[in-house]
Write a structure and sequence with these properties.
three-stranded antiparallel sheet
């Protein structure tokens, strides 16, 4: 059973080529087949990893609408009005 995304068998006469029902073959003898389930699972996993990465990046930068204490310390002239009120 082939678990790779793209399964290439260079010579189909040497051995029996197993093609499962969830694979799509692009030729008659089944030498070039794609497993769409594996591709969709890979896309799903990469999307989840990307969301976790973006959330951790946003959390590490502390994205807020209000200036943080560090912002006020770095540029006190810009935030003078907000500090006085």
């Amino acid at each position: 059973m082939s678990t790779s995304i793209l399964c290439l068998q260079p010579d189909a006469n040497d051995c029996e080529v197993y093609v499962s029902t969830d694979q799509t073959c692009f030729d008659v003898i089944g030498k070039v087949c794609l497993n769409w389930t594996t591709i969709l699972i890979a896309i799903l996993i990469s999307d989840i990893v990307q969301v976790v990465f973006e959330a951790s990046l946003a959390y590490s930068f502390e994205l807020t609408y209000k200036p943080t204490a560090l912002d006020k310390m770095l540029d006190p002239d810009t935030f003078d009005d907000e500090m006085d009120s």
